[in-house]
Design a protein that fits this description.
There is one protein chain. With about 150 residues, the chain is α/β, with parallel strands linked by helices. Helices cover about 40% and strands about 20% of the residues. It is built from 5 helices and 5 strands, in the order αββααβαββα. The chain has a 5-stranded mixed sheet. The longest helix is centred in the N-terminal third of the chain and has 20 residues.
Length: about 150
């Protein structure tokens, strides 16, 4: 699957809009969008605080919405876009959903499982692997996260 830079920028910009909304609600600013064939199947922002649920990450919520929208538990034609590198839980969920690719803006050196701490989507021991693309709009995403955490301190 070929994903153009224009597509990456378009959908990651939407992720950043969702992340900004999360920040305004006091959530860690992360947004995610699941797209197939240019159509949004699901999108979400972090809602861990609002839901009192440590698993309410943007990626999981977007994948759940996409599965509901398609009526399928697998999303082999979809791409998961995220403003922040997915953690182990979210990368695992994406692999279970059999996404075609994962695209994210900025790295997460403390929890990232798509290149920072591990490269789960490329692990040969798993029965599904997918390509990972990183770096588009990384400065914008990192700045949003820095502003959010600076306000907390």
């Amino acid at each position: 699957m070929t994903i153009t830079s224009e597509e990456r920028r378009r959908w990651l910009a939407r992720c950043l809009e969702l992340a900004q909304g999360a920040a305004e609600r006091g959530e860690v600013p992360v947004g995610a969008v699941v797209v197939a064939g240019g159509v949004v199947l699901g999108e979400a922002a972090n809602s861990c605080e609002e839901r009192s649920d440590p698993t309410a990450h943007a990626e999981l919520l977007a994948l759940q919405a996409a599965c509901r929208a398609t009526g399928q538990g697998r999303l082999p034609d979809a791409v998961l876009y995220c403003s922040l590198e997915p953690c182990f839980m979210c990368a695992g969920a994406a692999l279970h959903a059999r996404v075609a690719a994962i695209v994210f803006s900025t790295w997460d050196p403390k929890f990232g499982a798509c290149g920072s701490l591990a490269m789960l989507p490329a692990d040969p021991r798993l029965n599904h692997r997918c390509p990972v693309h990183a770096g588009e709009l990384a400065d914008e995403s990192a700045a949003l996260l820095r502003r959010f955490f600076r306000r907390l301190r």
